[in-house]
Amino acid sequence: MEKFRPVPFSDVELTDGFWKKRALINEEVTIYSVRDRFRDTGRFEAFKFNWTEGSDIPKPHIFWDSDVAKWMESVAFILAKKDVPELRGTVEELISLMEKNQKDDGYFNIAHTVVFPEMRFKNRDNHELYCLGHFIEAAVAWKNATGCDRLIKIVDKYIDLVIRVFCEEKSAEFTTPGHEEIELALIKLFRLTGEEKYLRLAMFFLDERGKKQEYMPDWCNASYNQSHLPVRQQTEAFGHAVRACYLYSAMADAAKETGDEELLSACKAILSDIVNKKMYITGGIGSSRHGEAFTVPYDLQSDTAYAETCASIALMMFADRMKDIELNSEYADIVEREIYNGILSGVSLDGKAFFYENPLEINLSDRTRHTSMSREPENLPITRRQEVFGCSCCPPNITRFFASIGDKIFSTGENSLIVHQFVPCEAKVGDIRIKLDTAYPSDGRIRINIRNAKGEMLFVRIPGWCREYTCSEAFVVSGGYIKVSVTSDDFDLTVDLDMTPSYYISSASVRATAGKAAVMAGPVVYCFESVYNKELRHYSLRLDMKNIPTAEYDERFGCNILKVKAYKIKENGSLYLTPDKLQEEETGITLIPYFGFANGEESDMAVWLNIR
Amino acid sequence: MEKFRPVPFSDVELTDGFWKKRALINEEVTIYSVRDRFRDTGRFEAFKFNWTEGSDIPKPHIFWDSDVAKWMESVAFILAKKDVPELRGTVEELISLMEKNQKDDGYFNIAHTVVFPEMRFKNRDNHELYCLGHFIEAAVAWKNATGCDRLIKIVDKYIDLVIRVFCEEKSAEFTTPGHEEIELALIKLFRLTGEEKYLRLAMFFLDERGKKQEYMPDWCNASYNQSHLPVRQQTEAFGHAVRACYLYSAMADAAKETGDEELLSACKAILSDIVNKKMYITGGIGSSRHGEAFTVPYDLQSDTAYAETCASIALMMFADRMKDIELNSEYADIVEREIYNGILSGVSLDGKAFFYENPLEINLSDRTRHTSMSREPENLPITRRQEVFGCSCCPPNITRFFASIGDKIFSTGENSLIVHQFVPCEAKVGDIRIKLDTAYPSDGRIRINIRNAKGEMLFVRIPGWCREYTCSEAFVVSGGYIKVSVTSDDFDLTVDLDMTPSYYISSASVRATAGKAAVMAGPVVYCFESVYNKELRHYSLRLDMKNIPTAEYDERFGCNILKVKAYKIKENGSLYLTPDKLQEEETGITLIPYFGFANGEESDMAVWLNIR
């Protein structure tokens, strides 16, 4: 059912603007910062396979291979654009160590070789196939970037072992991975190489999943890793949110490759369940710390929101795949919500530190005093980004995201060029040249110049949040996209999206945010942070939804901040008062982009504010 | 500084009305139900002192003496009005057992005799003096009711021991009680007997408290039992709410008896701290399960509200004492808030079952499914009243409250008769006869007839919640009371209080309820309970504070329920919508008195509702 193909980031040059700035920080700061922390914590050293019991080398953890693999993939994405010998050298060293330490039978896993070799393919929850998946993705990226297939050879040999052990001998103590990821990686490798065995193995893992009871840790049930039902029968998002969305991404890939309508309809049902019942306004998913998991519909508590950065990345990946299966702007809308909010909040503005959880409200006082909340501070999300975590999956997921953001902008297919995201850039698709110019998300004017494409159709997404827009050419709307014919070989189109800030209320089924409002301007969710609103407490304010915030460009965030009137209830000394005794004073407040919170002094923060 | 004296309940006969009905249930049902559960659990049997290690008799607990003492006191209050041989017989049997088992040196404590005799006066937190305090209160009540001083003799002998051990020999391993209560009991006994030694001992415990570091359990600090500062220096309510308000009650008693202005000003500061910063709208105090304690100002979370029934009783006791020190209607307002809400919710309408915690919101689904709330269901208040608890302090506190409610209605002094609470009754004060007639709290007309009181001043409280009222005679307002001269020996006064239901909002400092409203009609706090509002979820509704609820008398509750329009946000399938897409439908909802919640089918409940 292949309809569309993304234009790869390697064919897209970002030009000045919001994303170029962030991508530069990524390749100039973040990639090194993550490398340094990985080095400090022994993650690179581990590739020497020289840990022994009692040695003073840090003990390799089962996640470490994947952390480094994602960093290698990020480097590959950077190298695809320009050579950086220092980074290239490090990856080449790592590849050499992998070649040296790969077992003769193809097996490669650090912890399962040096720490507990007896556990090879024994514990479904031990992430061996997950780690392989990330090496496969790194191998594809490395091949694409450098033309070198050393890493491809390593993973190919390992995959052959996996095929033998899992599909032929069935000698592993589990059938499908406890942490999905390898499925989407195998399809990526299949797409690169055309080798059917990779697709067959991916389909094997997808087809077998949930067919029979497999090992689960004591504290959870089979839905934790989406093994409660065969995947084609799944209609709701359950369990660990990252595992879930990596699986759903692979299901979308498989549907696209195989034309499997059942898989596609499962993907659609699940995505609808997520977006309409289980997603924060920031795109955050997996509201519970317990299992880093989806919970019940509408359970979207702000201050305990887990909303892992990787989960937002994974949902973006899922939606981004769906956008190339059918023309429906809702998919790219999800991608947009994630990239400007739930993912972007995962990294500091200086590019050095990361959030694993992304809460929608912080009340510092909850952490320092005895209150009635029955929430132990250690169960609340942290309030400051860190440079590295014990399980440091998010930082290298962020680096690979920024280094390949160009992937998300355009698709082609069926004589069409589709503009999904509004990122200033120049791209090529065969002979076609595209130039996209915009100050988005600070401004809604999108100017597109397309050359050598006469006769093609040009599609431009109308974001779901956009209530008014104009287009410089005659158009029809199809699947939520403006559709115009490219009538000349040097064709200009200007689309103006009304970016007036808007209030949002949540469904009445969301207990946590009922009676409150959030503010978005374009795709950007805003928040109150006390560092920008000294002397004010977010919960003491009430917004009037008739007051439209005004936007002001702010260099710190690379986009607009908002100024809006709020009403502060005056204290009269009493705890309870009748409305006739209510006295308010008007006060101006500043709302900053949610992605930019926690970059100043430690602060209270809230996305949802009371209304009057 | 004695100004006023309460007219004792023994001189007040309740006539038909809200409280008579509840008092009858108390003396016909509750007193027996508590007795039966105490019997089942071995609390009476324990008075035989025949527990031994390995015996099949339940092991006496350190609280048990006080549980039974409060039940004995309750029986005494009932017997003060009419003899009930069955109840009298049980108490007499208990007194005989106490006489038999009291140690020669006066000591009487079941657990510390049969379970761990070596612990006598060793552990400050072991409640020995607390138990004695309740025996003292029972002894005073028993003497008042029956004229018999057997129990007085027992406690007198024990008190002599306490004076010797604590004041003279100082041989106990602590100086002041870990759980206050004996202080107020001693002053009560002093008032009955005139024996200065009781007052001196009370003052000793008050004066020594907080002067030096005493034993504290590991998990708390000295403010847990109000030992962080000498009592005269305390200005804020801290720690275990019941202990705190028993202490503050004793401080008020002591201030009244001794004219100690420092104590009085501490009482005022603390009471203001409670009422203006730490009290639920229901009167509930002690918002945290952890330590059953006060926390920081404005920490008034609805669904985790601990708000122990005994704490409401204790705050009522404190405020009720303050009302007789100075004429200020705010004190009796607190009493009123407690008796119609925080205390009354502690017992089921049928009189058989009790709440220990009194939450202001229940969401049943939080208890049965995995959500993001980070609240373990076992840390949430229970949703159904129980007949008995392991620590069953609240049930006999309820029985003694109902049996002596007549105490709270009138005070006399300075040629004045003061009407604090509006309870239909007939009372005598010397030759004066008072008749109070009202359908309160369903109706605001208060009719008072007073005979043989020409020349006295009559004061009638204007409740703090009341914004409009009329009075049939010329009056001035003094200390929040209508003040009229009694101009004839058969004097009638009618006061009409406007009982129109009203919305309340909380101080903007209360994060939990900011943006919400509660409804009260007169002194009664109302709540939404889903059993009366099928198919509706409280958080999906929005109230319009311009809609005034209409009242309808409801026999089940013995007072009005309210009907009001609410607005239900229609679901449109999306999680987030702009206000222009908001569609509402009007729906009628029923609000019931908060005290009556959890008397039907298990339900969601909320005092605070969203507003539009």
Written account of the structure:
The structure is a homodimer of 612-residue chains. Chain A is of the alpha+beta class and 612 residues long. In chain A, strands 3, 14, 15, 16, 17, 18, 19, 21, 22 and 23 form a ten-stranded antiparallel beta sheet that branches. Chain A has a six-stranded mixed beta sheet with strand order 1-4-5-9-12-11, with no helix packed on it. In chain A, strands 2-6-7-8-13-10 form a six-stranded antiparallel beta sheet, with no helix packed on it. The first copy, chain A, contains 13 helices and 23 strands. In chain A, helix 1 packs antiparallel against helix 13 (394-403), helix 2 (64-79) runs parallel beside helix 5 (128-146) and helix 5 (128-146) runs antiparallel to helix 6. In chain A, strand 7 and strand 8 form a beta hairpin. Chain A is globular and about 80 Å long. The model of chain A has no long low-confidence stretch (mean pLDDT 96). Chain A folds into four domains: 15-215, no CATH class; 234-285 and 296-301 and 310-346, no CATH class; 410-497, Maltose phosphorylase, domain 3, CATH 2.60.420; 502-611, no CATH class. The longest helix of chain A is centred in the N-terminal third of the chain and has 23 residues, at 18-40. Chain A starts with a strand and ends with a strand. Chains A and B meet through helix 10, strand 14, strand 15 and strand 20 of A and helix 10, strand 14, strand 15 and strand 20 of B. Strand 20 of chain A pairs antiparallel with strand 14 of chain B, so a sheet runs across the interface.
